[in-house]
Design brief:
The protein has 267 residues and is α+β, with helices and mostly antiparallel strands. It has eight helices and 14 strands. Helix 4 runs parallel beside helix 6. GO terms for molecular function: DNA binding; DNA-(apurinic or apyrimidinic site) endonuclease activity; double-stranded DNA 3'-5' DNA exonuclease activity; metal ion binding; phosphoric diester hydrolase activity. Its cofactor is Mg(2+); Mn(2+).
Length: 267
């Protein structure tokens, strides 16, 4: 089984460039998780008849949003859930801040299959002035970890992927010293990631590849992508008991169309 994840930074934009369908046709993921779709489902002109589409779009038009495309050969999911359950949102005080309500921003989808859950997530950005760090550190990150642990406790492995908007270690960005304490590389954001790992979830890319130079997002400025001055902020994690079944985990920087590139695993 091949699972891919891509922050497309607007599905309509990448499709109009003629780059979305060719990617899907070349890699043929069984499950494709998307972030930052920036569209309602009825606004998308993508036509992939062999896939069933599941969308969680933001209430605010042209903003955020996630989707999962699953090959029909997998069969219908046993369940589909958008966002966090109300009890988890309530427990961690997840509510609107100055930017809006993260529960209405279309940030999480979970599909349940016979042997596993697959979850896609688009984690809130801390913002340049770090004004969304309180939401991120005290509410979102703990709520997301509680959610994936809750799914795991139901007796199935969890695969979760997406744009987590954080570089975990200095190896995950080209210029760690210059970015220490800035958005995406604050102590609070990195702590949230470490807690996921401490809970037993495995960063699949690091099973196979160590060191720096492997990035999934590049700024539009200063020719950053061509110079590979980037960040690894897109991840595919699996439950510990599934880690030994992961055969490969790759970053696909040759795929253009977004400021992020896709990532994929084979199980």
């Amino acid at each position: 089984m091949r699972i891919a994840s891509w922050n497309v930074n607007g599905i309509r934009a990448v499709h109009k460039k003629g780059l979305f369908v060719p990617f899907v046709e070349k890699y043929q993921p069984d499950i494709l998780c998307l972030q930052e779709t920036k569209a309602q489902q009825d606004q998308s002109e993508v036509d992939l008849p062999e896939y069933e589409e599941y969308w969680n779009s933001a209430v605010k038009k042209g903003y955020s949003g996630t989707a999962i495309f699953a090959q029909k050969s997998l069969g219908k999911p046993l369940s589909v859930a958008n966002g966090f359950p109300p009890e988890i949102a309530k427990k961690f005080g997840l509510k609107a801040d100055a930017y809006g309500d993260p529960q209405t921003e279309g940030r999480v989808i979970a599909l349940e299959f016979k042997d596993f859950y697959v979850v896609t997530v688009y984690t809130p950005n801390a913002k340049d002035d770090l004004s969304r760090i309180p939401l991120r550190h005290k509410q979102w990150d703990p709520a997301f970890l509680a959610y994936i642990k809750n799914l795991e406790e139901r007796g199935k492995s969890v695969i979760f992927c997406g744009d987590l908007n954080v570089a975990h270690t200095p190896d995950d960005l080209a210029r760690p010293k210059e970015n220490e304490g800035l958005k995406g590389f604050t102590a609070e954001e990195r702590e949230g990631m470490q807690k996921i790992i401490n809970a037993g979830f495995v960063d699949t890319f690091r099973i196979f590849t160590k060191g720096n130079g492997h990035y999934t997002w590049w700024s539009h400025f200063a020719n950053a992508r061509a110079r590979n001055v980037g960040w690894r902020i897109d991840y595919i994690f699996v439950s510990a008991k599934l880690a030994k079944k992961v055969k490969s985990s790759k970053i696909l920087p040759e795929i253009l169309g977004s400021d992020h590139c896709p990532i994929s695993i084979e199980i």
